[in-house]
## 1
Amino acid sequence: MNEVAEMTAPVAEPASGRNAPACDAAVTRKEPKVLVCDGNEAAAWGVVLSRPDMVAVYPITPQSSLAEYVAQFVADGVLDAELVEAEGEHSVLSVLHGAALAGARTYTASCGQGLAFMFEPYFRTPNLRLPIVMSIVNRDGITPQCVWGGQQDAMTVREVGWVQLFCETVQEVLDTIVMAYRIAEDRSVMLPVNVNHDGNYLSNGIVRIELPDQAEVDDFLGTPDVNWHAALDPDRPMGVDPLTGGATGPGPALFVGYRRGHCEGMQNALRVIVEVHEEWARRFGRRYAPLVEEYRLDGADHALVTIGSMAGAAKDAVDAARERGERVGLIRIKTLRPFPVDAMVAALDKVQAVGVVDRAVSYGWNSGPVHQETLAALQYCRHRIPCLSLIGGLAGADLTQAHFERAIAETAKLFDGPCPRTPVWLNAEDR
Amino acid sequence: MSATPTIAFDATRCDGCGECMSACASAKSTDGSSAQSRIRIVRDEESGSWGIAQCRQCGDPRCASVCPAAALAKGDDGIVAWDAERCVNCLICTAGCTFGGIAFSPAEGHVVKCDQCSDQHAGAPQCVSACARGALRYVTAANVYNRWGELEDLFVPGLGGCQGCNTELIMRHTLRRVGPNTVLATPPGCIPGMGSVGYNGMLGCKVPVFHPLLTNTASMLTGIRRQHKRKGRNVTALALAGDGGAGDVGFQSLSGAAERGEQILFVCVDNEGYMNTGAQRSGSTTYGAWTATTPIGDSARGKAQDAKNLPLLMMWHGCEYVATASTAFMEDFYAKLEAALEASERGFAYLHLYSPCTSGWRFPSASNIEVARTAVETNFAVLWEYRREQGLTLSRDIDDPLPVTDYLKLLGKFRHLDAAQIAHIERHVAEQAQVLRELAAMQPCEGRQVVGRQSDLMAVDLDQ
Amino acid sequence: MEQFDYVVLGASHAGLEALRAIRAHDADGSIAVLDREARLPVSPTVLPYVVSGKCAEDRIALRERSWFDAQRVDYRQQAAAAALDAARSRLRLADGREIGYGKLLLATGAAPALPPIEGLSDVRFHVLRTLADALALRDAANEVASEAGRSAGRAVVLGAGLVGMHAAENLVRAGARVTIVEMRGQVLPGYFDATAAARIEAVFRDKGVEVLTGRRVKQVARRGEDCTVLLDGGDAREAELLLVAAGVRPEVSYLSGSGVAVERGIVVDEFMRTAAANVWAAGDVVQTPSFFGDGTPAGGILPDAVEQGRTAGMSMAGDPALRPYPGGVSLNTYGFFGRRALSVGRDAPAQAGPEWDVLVRDGEGAEGYLKLVLREGRLQGIFGVDVLFDPGIMWELILRRVEIDARRQALLENPQDTARALMSGLWR
């Protein structure tokens, strides 16, 4: 593995600025270790801190270095976990199913085609209510062949029933992986969590991060509580996942019971995600908007809607526009599933037009998936406001400040005329 | 009522040499004459074959039922014992026995019968020892059955298999031996179809059991086994999977787990197709067989390809243990299950059971065991086992098989075969037997590696 | 009122075999066995050996009490049935108590039949059916024998069936002078053909037994402790010991008004069901149909009683392996003065058609006598004196109607090995 510069430094002052999360000054903390590393290594450190019993991985670009970091941590004894180098993503998640049903806290990471191959057990994971945490190092889908970032993978599986969180920064990747276990294992939730970090941008972007103290994380997470509801354990013999359903007998009601329980778990997750982020801020001093981040919406009449790491450049563009006197803000979705309707509506109610920037395509609607989600949330808003779809950053394409300035401009046009039914393809003219 | 050892007679191996009678007489008679032998080999001139008259040590001995003096009784050792002091010489026992197993001895003045030499040579009947041609065998399978019978039955009675299906036998007997400290995976197919994981909350067995996906049985068991082991618990990870879930769509996970040496006992119940869903073709379906997706028509005559030899593929993974078995040879199956279970403590153990399907193969439901036996006796299914240390060994002689057609004619799925197809099958069966014969001949010896074993030198080189 | 799932009346061969068959299929049902005797069950067949002294009376029990306990069977002695109310599934015992049953087996056996001979009720005579009978006869035989030391005591045996012949041999061995009176034309009628019977009779005559066949007793008259037996020819025998062995009659006195049909015995179907619901019968109490469907004697034979008991028990317990009772086949193994006579099946009828074949081997000494009876190439009967074969195999060959035409000569020459070879190839 790479030798990583590891420094221990006092935190001089609460991190400030746009990309550094707000810090609760009142909290006294141990001085954190500081690392300079990329998002994949940060994710691996998040895994180390969460102390899973079992990790199963299969390498895939741009996730591969994450798998290598975890393997090395296990080899070095930094992480005391069973490491299963399964022969493919399908088995990776299947191994974790078995392990979780035997009581293990588990972790894996994949993306793109790996996620596609994993789909059969992936589909089943939340239905089994297994609190597995899985990073998706977001990658666009083939074909055309590509190995670069894009969110088509995660967006495609958003109806399967996992909790899906999208990170903006490398630090947030680490922090969110740890928080994800608390969310997943909460007895009112019991659902798997995807922690998404954009391939290339976050996976390979090197920054300075803080590493929380292990003992404090241990205290935060508690002991794994994974298979109290469904176990494969001779001490508690039971049949897991018997045939259910059909048109007669107890089947229909049983099946509905499972589905409804799953939906309730998802709704409970909205509350738990907020609580866990709150506690994280209290304990570790870093505060993230748990569901929907509102950036400079005060006094804004239009806003961009973003998801994932693109918010960095987008916020730069918003800042620049504000300096020019444009009344623009930004809404960043962190939690896509369960969809935070109330938080989204509250944000949308503050503006009169939005432009939604997607890094994925919703083919059937000729727009982006987050655009579709936003349209659905608008149903609950006070006013029907125009909502433009913009699609960019596919297959590793850059989304620069300039792209977002154009996005802002296109959004502002909504005040002057009808909202186009076709998306704005932000990288269409790039060379 | 428990079963007990018997002396089995194979008429086809007997040449009437009479050594058994001489051995019996010298062990039993008062005057050394073979007339007093308790075993009698007799020739039927009409059929030209040899027959036997000897006590079968019946489980429910009629000689004892009819004895008016309570002089005959089946003992706990399984021997129907004769009490000289009680016997009144009425000979009614000879009317009760339909096997000529107890008869009046003029020289001794009373009835005599075989006691399997339990007095002086317990466990080694002298007639069997004397039989050079293997026509007499001392079958102790009953001991195994008795032991099995005492083990806890971990399946509910009355699972919903097709009439005549042997899968319930496999499930019940496997779980009895493997025991309650087990997690059982039954991927979609006949086995969960019979109700092992249950339906709408009703459960079919007493061990933790689950439906894996059709594709991921070995992977899920990997996680289960490793996690329990991590917590210091030795839980058996057992799969009872069909051939599709093992060798077709499930093969990747099976191969991966075998390659990693996961400590799993994987039992493949091979009924040569997707029988639970209406008898469609699988990679294990044999050449020429009718299935719902290899139908018979103007341009199609059943499956056009040979089956893949899944157990051999597993052997080449270098598993800890690989074996093939048949429900027609339960003693052999028990021994292999025992070995596989033990091997699964160290690494991957794979047991392949040839399992005829009454409904999908089109044969009468009463004939399942006969079909299974004939498959083995014709070399259509060869019984063998592979151990890492010993390589491959054949479980029974394959040099003198019955004609393959004896097997083919039992099954409706082969009814349409033409001469060329039969010739293809005969050739393939002979080739497979030859491959196994040659593998079995590769005896491990010093300085040579065993079949399927990885070279130690490689590992040394890497370390350097 | 006590209630049992199964009640078995009688604890001899049929009852005990039924019990075994019930327990083999129904491990849990409650079972009561009611025996009218006051001791552990004893087979009537063993009684001649008690008389001879070959058997000690305390070592002949068919089952010990512990066996019943192990089978979880409520076994009761001195429990005789007085009346059966089949409509209400109740049995009244001689002591007045009632027992309810789910299923009932009548296996009460038979009692000695007494011929209508004038004066019989006025004299002291013996029968041989129970252990008490056997002990009394044994003592009497010893008495006659010791008297014989002074003045050759005579014993008269009425009936030359197996009981009579066994007893006669015992009495001769004890030292008595013995006369056998048999109203039919041969000894052991119905069991052996005339030639075999003649051979057996000759042996008895050699031993000094007076064998009077084709003779009837007109009258018996008391003469002090002894009696005078007056024969149909006008001559008489003085008897210090009189044994009546003229056959048996089924023990059915408790069945009047029960709805169970009784003819020469209880009438049963092929599963040993009587005319009354939930009531079965087996053994000597039953009117056994002949396997051959003709007038051939059937029943009263120990192996038959066992077969019937098994059939009844399996039927009662609902054992799916149940097969219909094939009908009785006469079958005897008879040892006399150290020699052996065996019979299985039936003889050819007097006016036998061409489909019948009778093969006879009639040598002396070790050669012995053997007779094979075939009909349409299938074994009907085999009778031998001083020739050994396996009666069980012959019985099965008859029941299976095995074609043996090609082996007829081999069977005649070496019936034991030939039948064994055939058996070995036919059944496993």
Note: Chains A and C do not touch (no CB pair under 8 Å).
## 2
Amino acid sequence: MAKELIRLHDLCMSYDDEMVLDHINLYINDSEFLTLLGPSGCGKTTTLRIIGGFTTPTSGDVTFDGVRINDVPPHKRQINTVFQKYALFPHLDVFENVAFGLRISKVPEKEIRTRVEEMLEVVSLKGFEKRRVDQLSGGQQQRVAIARALVNRPKVLLLDEPLGALDLRLRKDMQNELKRIQQQMGITFIYVTHDQEEALTMSDTVVVMDKGRIQQIGTPEDIYNEPKNAFVADFIGESNILDGVMHADYVVEFFNRKFKCLDKGFAPMEPVDVVIRPEDIEIVPPDKGRLQGTVTSVTFKGVRYDTIVDFKGYKWLIQTTDYHPVGEEIGIILNPDDIHIMKKSDYSGMFGDYSSYSAEYDEINDLEYEEEGEDAGHED
Amino acid sequence: MNQKKNGAMTRLFTVLVYVFLYLPIAVLIVFSFNDSKSRTVWAGFSTHWYQELFRDEEILSAFSTTITVSVLAALIATVLGTAAAIGFHSMRRRPRNLLLTINSIPMTNADIITGVSLMLLFVFAGNLLGFSLGFGTLLLAHITFNIPYVVLAVMPKLRQLNPNLAEAAQDLGATPWQAFWKVLMPELRPGILNGALIAFTMSIDDFVISYFTAGSEVSTLAMQIYAMTRKRISPEINALSTILFAIVLTLLVIVNVRQVRQEKQRQRLALRMRKGDAA
């Protein structure tokens, strides 16, 4: 049904012995909104740059419409890019920025005029033609960058953290805007971000990457509901991750108790990682719960409370709409579909432990990503 | 009270420094318009020495040599220096810093060392390839000492550049060459112009390096002045020096005004950007 447009075959990239991409295999369909998601240094920007033609892979192939394009320079690819810091041409006004690609390919003046006007309308920038780009706000510059790329009618648009520099509200608006433009024009979008929420909101397909490897490919629902390993479970949303053992199909043991689950196909007594999403856990009075614990910290997050509960030394994060004060004894109930089983991986034991949880944790993490992201941008 | 006195002293000191620096030049300029051969007695205003100057074949030829060498050297050094700066800029940090340091050594190096070493090189190469010191070697020497100044003038503009700018142009279908001319060039132009002006200024008033590399056939204005002080001391020197001083001063003022203006514009833009984002 969907037509394959781009394929990455065994793509490897290394800078001075440092493996940045490790055997990436991926295909991208026509008209798909695909997001490369991962922390900084995971190789997502490098992958994008290889597709755009700005970086040559150490080994492996890139094909476009079935043709190998490894050695095709960027200006000959039917691919356009929206760069992280927009990279608008400061000496040209808005109109000329958008017209740049058309002028290069010697499109007749009349057609340039109509196509640029059309595109400025799509990104809601009509009337800004004669403005200098340095007189625009961040969001407006962003839209000029998108118009400048799309006016060339590329088959694929690459977007490298295009909303990173915008504030939260503008970012939300632009997410909707981008999705709308993508559907309206029917173009393949390949989007790079470290923001999992952004990825889940906009994408048809999410590719989760870490350490130069693809960790999981799937729809946003797949990625969230059926994470393949502890890294994905932790990176996409919050997760409690515990050691468990599969006794048989549909039966898993953790905390010395057997639970029903929906997973099968593991070897008998195979050690596994058990993922329990904080919002799936139901709090009940202690005597009615399968497990009993004590609340050790509560953080108000607006729509919910982040409640940390100590179960015999293991701390879980539970998200509830009800307030349970610190020190309260509670019980919990887990339904079979609240429990997700993952095979053991290199990431087992590294994530999903809330013993050192603090309210600032999230923000600190995000800050780090942003700073590193900037560095990574300059590196290559 | 005490502070006031201090302030007055500081002002006096500053004035004295400038008097010592510029009085000789002022005297030189004043006496270039003197209507007598005397270097001490003012006999009235006249442009006699300037007229004399423009009748002197040797001086006219030196003047044309100077202009030719300076223009050519500035142009060639600007092209080479800009290319070098772009090359440096795209390097990794360590080799880049190393090369920039090497680049700036000739500027701090004593002219006489640069001059003598270039002369030795030209004499050696000339023996080998069969040419002698003359206009060609003079030009080569000027290009050589101009390049570092051009690199230094272009580098800051490159640093201000969005690193994705050239890539964005190529992404939109421009060949690397088109990307350079249509996108990088307009951004770099002010820096390149500054570089060219500085190079021209350096060339026009150079004496030491020219003296060692020009050979006996050609001479520049600066060399001519030096030769004149040794032969016959004539107020023509005053006139010639005044002209040279005026040219160099004008160029330096232009360069400085341009740089200040560009800096102000950059700050204004940065401010506007911030306001734009807030809005």
Note: DSSP finds eleven helices and no strands in chain B.
## 3
Amino acid sequence: MADVAIIGVGLHPFGRFPGRSAIQMGAMAARLALKDAGIEWRDVQFAFGGSYEVDNPDAVVNELGLTGIPFTDVYNGCATAASALSLAARTIRSEEFDIGIAIGMDKHLPGAFAADPVEYSLPSWYGETGLFLTTKFFGMKIQRYMYDYGISRETLAKTTAKALRNGVLNPNALRREAIPEEVILGSRMLNDPLTQLMFCSPDEGAAAVIMCRADIAHRYTDTPIFLLSSEVRTRRFGSFEVHSPSFGGERAPAPTVDASKVAFERAGVQPSDVDVVQLQDTDAGAEIMHMAENGFCEDGEQEKMIAEGATEIGGRLPINTDGGLLANGEPIGASGLRQIHELVLQLRGTAGERQVPGSPRVGYAQLYGAPGTAGVTIISK
Amino acid sequence: MKQVLIAEGLVSSLSASPRLIGARCQRCDALSFPLLSGCARCGSEDLQAIELPARGRLWTWTSQEFLPKSPPYTGGESKETFKSWYVGYVDLDGLHVEGRLVGFEERTPEIGEEVELTLIPFGIDGNGDEVMIYGFQPVGLVEEN
């Protein structure tokens, strides 16, 4: 079994780009990653591509070069990028190939996602009656969590404001304007307790990560970042998940808890070893709950931690230093690779204005999405 | 006007005391809703349709304050006529079932309060019949009115 190193990352800005296709953005992200790694497309031996809107992300080879490599497309909801990354890492670990790329790209229309509930193993009436919506799930999950653990609405606003402040420092972000907490609380209510500004927006963008066998990484870079683990898990019976007409029995842990446990175990590190974190913040409540689901605090501790600034760039547990989904939006196929891009910059010490102080060593990324899929990746220098 | 349910097999009857139709797994005893081809817990196909309890406690809730996209939504409102509603999960004998919440014009729902199943007019279908969906309302609402 070979160890895996990340030697190149590339990111096409997240936002709205009329006239530019998702594939073109994917090609641009791939070229940036190739340049970062100091290699050419012909050096890449395999690829995994992730997208929601694009049927064949592998068509990006039309613009990068038709070299005949195996190129596998994956789609796994909001955990698509984690799946592409995890499969690419496993391909290297198995020693089938030495060097490969994971590319994610998407171009969504504004507004909430729409789909056919029947394709989610749900009855038609679930959609017809207005229940087939992701946002109200997030509203209901944080509503119960606030009741159980005493999280306040102000903490939701603080989390959003922190993301937007970090977005100001990130030239690649969709939203780059700091907004006061009272404006966030007073924006249009969408799904109580979540206001419009507390939700991320589906948008456009692409990202790419190049990996190789760790023992040859020195050929390409002086600062290899090692991929310690990358794990995907789905929901168990009894966990409360998006798009569920019912959930039964004893409450089971969320898929994030399962993915996180196995990722820590395989990486051989503990939550206390992690220096910089990326969490799925589809909404402000999700970031808060995911802090506990990933083992970074006990349920309810978030209220005090966030009041003390623990999750700020200069805090003891910096979370979503590039603004997360709240500032970057969510092009589904690319979102998880954006997280890795940011963590790699942080571990290299090249994150500029938003650099976490103290030379961070271990980075952690988590994705969560419909219909109850989570991915966790741990990297270190 | 004739009333019809939005889907067959969803609710026991259009009577004043309707019940949701769920399933009990004959292998592992798990409850589920709605009836699928296999048990969500153990995968067994040996499922028995049962009537779920009419009453339970509200486990969580939120408001739906924007018009859902059509399709799949068939509510028929426009952005101008849309009125927000509440939705929640109700603990029915350990099975948490999602549905609209009605009867909360004066106050917000409260986690832990007792609610009961009811049928709600949803719109008129192509045959001129009134389509009914299920939801939950505070216990005692009907008597008080």
Note: The mean pLDDT of chain B is 93.
## 4
Amino acid sequence: MVVRRSPFAIAMPAPNLLPPEKVPAPRGNFAVGVLALQGSFWEHEVMLRKIGVAVREVRRPADLDGLAGLIIPGGESTTIGKLAVDFGLLEPLRTFGRTHAIWGTCAGAIFLSKDARREQPLLGLMEITVERNAFGRQVASFEVDIPVPALKTVAPDDERPFHAVFIRAPLIETVTPPAEVLARLEDGRIVAARQGHLLATAFHPELTADTRFHRYFLHLAGWGTDR
Amino acid sequence: MEAQTGSYKVKVGLAQMLKGGVIMDVVTPEQAKIAEDAGAVAVMALERVPADIRKQGGVARMSDPELILKIMDAVSIPVMAKVRIGHFVEAQILEALGVDYIDESEVLTPADEEHHIDKHNFKVPFVCGARNLGEALRRIAEGAAMIRTKGEAGTGDVVEAVRHARAVLGEIRRLQTMAEEELYTYAKEIGAPLDLVREVKELGRLPVVNFAAGGIATPADAALMMQLGMDGIFVGSGIFKSEDPPKRAAAIVKAVTHYNDPAILAEVSKGLGEPMRGQQAADLPAEARLAGRGW
């Protein structure tokens, strides 16, 4: 919780909106990428560097070389898809995802899916279908605590639910094996899924201070086993 | 925990998802579709682009809700719309329509010459223009979840956007070198709440997303604003007042992603046709300048 120094304090810093000089320098050889075509890529970088992992922004196919995994951030899925097509990233990303961890948040989850019920470029790597803007327009965007049992893998003693921020969010409509459900809303609707080393969340862990989801992704990318 | 809508976090959060993107002014559903296909992250639904508001004069007001709804139906990306400064009922109407972001804009004729809208009262987030740090922080204090430079809308001349970006970013850099005891007088001088001044000093940036707007007409203009340190770009008249809007729109989108790569900027700048003709901002008489509106 932010400490309010003045009774007139109103604004709260948007998490992870920090200039480069305020972000810790990375350590080690293990590096993951963040697809930096558009959206909340900087917020993901801040989270990863807080954990102590080297990060590279990926804008062109050659940027993927040597990375252990990739995060596709939130943003507009139509914009990210179009730029990925224009800069020849679709096939390189599909190839990368067959052997490396990829995590898509919101727009990134849409991009990983095989069907978004709409004509737009998708990677089609995960056996999930999504519905875009499933909760409605921005006035329906919300935040809520949800249980995510899988996070126990990286935080065995942490009993807290995960604070999930949904912004014009998609829903994961269907999850077909080998994909599996990771998290649901209270009413049962699916908001996170995993398929081997691929991860999709309809919400934005990069807008919180909780690093568990990022550590879970790093676990899928093999972090910790190489040290 | 109950699900919470309309929180400050989800308001700022949507702007965070728009970062590194281009928001385009559109006046018809067809233009909105062109913008979406070109890779826009959002569209601003208007009856007239700023260049025409300038030319035609008269009172500029919120657009017809019917037009805004048609544009909302035409695209899957967020739709923004403008209200007059201080006109909170226009804002209530846009919120009722389900618009995704409201621009309390100096481009429209102000409805209140002393007060802006109390934006905390709304579930829909607001973006406001600013020429300097004090103005930006006053808008944030009123509840704005996103800031943009004012620039000089409808001119196609980037000089005022550069001036405003340099003012805000330069003042933040100076603020970071100030001693704690200097902040009280500084806050008074720039007319901003002390706690927000402190927060900006600590963060080293505005606590919300900060876009460039007002006069951007080419991919190079867009990349210039990004290299100066802006989080994304609004293009108003610059696209649909140019010779080949789809091509120019797509080029500006690419320029914002690859703003640091001159080879790609050179490639996307080729053969775009005539840009909007434009008008030097320096030639405008004081009463024709829009950036002075807002208090």
Note: The CA atoms of residues 29 and 73 of chain B lie 8 Å apart.
